[in-house]
Write a structure and sequence with these properties.
Strand order of the largest sheet: 17-20-23-26-29-32
CATH class of the largest domain: Alpha Beta
Structural class: alpha/beta
Family: Belongs to the eIF-2B gamma/epsilon subunits family.
Shape: elongated
CATH architecture of the largest domain: Alpha-Beta Complex
Largest sheet: 6 strands, parallel
InterPro entries: eIF2B_gamma (IPR051960), Ig-like_dom (IPR007110), LbH_EIF2B3/5 (IPR056764), NTP_transferase_dom (IPR005835), Nucleotide-diphossugar_trans (IPR029044)
Helix content: 25-40%
Number of strands: 33
Keywords: Acyltransferase, Cytoplasm, Initiation factor, Protein biosynthesis, Transferase
Radius of gyration: 26 Å
Main location: cytoplasm
Protein name: Translation initiation factor eIF2B subunit gamma
Strand content: 15-25%
Number of domains: 2
């Protein structure tokens, strides 16, 4: 047998990662601007590591090399500086900006249509706020996609994870609501995602799921799960973008396009209209694989099914055989796959609740010890009491008789004397003066807490200043609260 060594650089790349880095309005006021300086969700640190580093590290550990990073134009300088200051040796990152403001959001579908010319091959769509656990390598999702696209013509693979159980009274309701879990219907044998409950579905009928017989005839025994969350990690065929170009009215990928895409496989009219977009050509190897596919044979089984009304995990039971629609060509499934992850904490850090929970999660395995560098060690007073489940960033000063427990403190912070900090997250460049007490708080960068002030379960915007002796509980502290009056007066004079 003749063997040839093919140079690695001649092997075309298989996937392009499309990484989205938006404004993060649900993380306000941490992501509210600090004067003229934007505070980026992508660079918001979780245990002193910027959010965007988690998915980028995940990509590095996989076979993907090329990354299209899409961000608001106003965020590009800061993200570019971070990428070049923290080089990812195996990644080629193309940063592409788009014009958007925090008040006028642009949906994922709109972004994909706009940048479709820069996505020439199969792609992995993900958000910068996803933190995967070590037990979920990206290669496991990619391998599932590779196998299923060849075996039966799958068009996309999604990843869902078990929704974390929030601690009771972990954060005040004033900080925002915890995103609810989503009800999904799926086929266990083939791991096929069949139905996603959308906000429109809930508005029409919040008590029952309305499922089509065309779906149940092809998948007679389906599972219903109501405790899963979407990771916003989607591995897609390039042809999915061709269909998206035809659906100009779709803006949200998860709430509009993906639920619609799940229906193409079993809705005859949709399949007839869009099959030539999703399957422009079938190669010989795929055709042969389809003939021997066990997944395809399972999908051809047909009988009616009844789905329970309750939105909890259940399976349907077939009652009477019903012939499948003979007009549907099952040579290619055109289905959406499902990778369900139940072990190991995964999260999308797109709200304050999850931000706090992920910091707590990593603190549980933290083992703080005094810095070994003499200059850094000199910044921590010998009489300071710092628990082992605490993380303190570089160049942070802690004065005498200060107590710090279960807390993350960023870089270049100054903590005064006799300060008590419990269960908090302090971002970079914060100042806490003598005798202050903080309990369960999140301080945006450059926050200053005056002497003997007391904060309980508060969150501050970057640059906020708490007056000495002030006592505040369960509040979002934003600069506009005490500057709005002056700003509006000056604007009126200019007009």
């Amino acid at each position: 047998m003749l063997e040839m060594d093919i140079p690695l650089e001649l092997v075309p790349p298989e996937f392009l990662a499309v990484l989205l880095a938006g404004f993060g309005n649900e993380l306000s006021p941490l992501t509210s601007d600090h004067g003229d300086e934007p505070c980026l969700k992508a660079l918001l640190p979780v245990v002193n590591k910027p959010l965007i580093d988690y998915p980028l590290t995940w990509l590095e550990q996989s076979s993907i090399k090329d990354v299209l990073l899409i961000c608001p134009a106003i965020h590009r300088p800061a993200i570019s500086h971070h990428i070049h200051s923290h080089p990812y040796s195996s990644l080629h990152i193309d940063i592409q900006p788009y014009e958007e403001t925090a008040d006028s959001g642009v949906g994922t579908c709109t972004l994909l249509r706009h940048f479709s010319s820069r996505i020439p091959r199969d792609f992995v769509l993900m958000s910068c706020d996803f933190i995967p656990p070590p037990s979920l390598p990206l290669t496991s999702i990619l391998n599932k996609f590779r196998t299923d696209t060849v075996s039966d013509g799958l068009i996309a693979t999604t990843c869902w994870f078990a929704a974390p159980k929030a601690e009771k009274n972990a954060t005040p309701d004033e900080w925002g609501h915890i995103p609810p879990s989503v009800s999904i219907v799926w086929d266990k044998p083939s791991s096929t995602l069949l139905y996603i409950d959308t906000p429109d579905d809930l508005d029409r009928n919040s008590e029952e799921l309305e499922l089509r017989m065309s779906m149940l005839s092809r998948y007679p025994r389906v599972a219903l799960s109501s405790n899963m969350q979407d990771s916003h990690v989607y591995v897609c065929k390039r042809s999915v973008l061709d269909v998206l170009q035809e659906k100009q009215h779709f803006d949200s990928f998860r709430e509009e396009f993906l639920p619609w895409l799940c229906k193409v496989q079993y809705r005859r009219t949709k399949r007839e209209k869009y099959e030539h977009f999703l399957n422009p050509s079938t190669n010989t190897s795929q055709t042969l694989a389809l003939k021997h596919s066990t997944l395809l044979s399972k999908s051809k089984q047909h009988s009616a099914a009844h789905v329970p009304k309750s939105k909890s995990s259940a399976t349907s039971a077939p009652q009477s055989p019903v012939p499948a629609d003979p007009n549907i060509d099952t040579s290619l499934s055109l289905r959406v796959g499902l990778h369900m992850h139940r072990h190991g904490l995964a999260a999308r850090v797109n709200n304050i609740h999850t931000f706090m929970e992920m910091n707590r999660h990593f603190l549980a395995s933290a083992t703080y010890s005094l810095p070994t560098d003499p200059n850094e060690r000199a910044l921590i007073d010998q009489k300071a009491q710092i628990s082992s489940d605490t993380i303190i960033g570089d160049s942070t000063k802690v004065d005498e008789r200060t107590s710090i427990k279960k807390t993350v403190i960023g870089r270049h912070c100054t903590i005064g004397k006799m300060v008590k900090i419990v269960g908090c997250v302090l971002l970079d460049h914060c100042v806490v003066e003598d005798g202050a007490k903080l309990d369960g708080c999140v301080l945006g960068k450059n926050t200053k807490v005056g002497a003997k002030a007391e904060l309980v379960r508060c969150i501050t915007q970057a640059g906020y200043e708490v007056d000495p002796g002030e006592n505040v509980k369960h509040e979002k502290l934003e600069i506009s609260d005490w500057t709005a009056g002056g700003v509006s007066e000056s604007e009126d004079e200019e007009e």
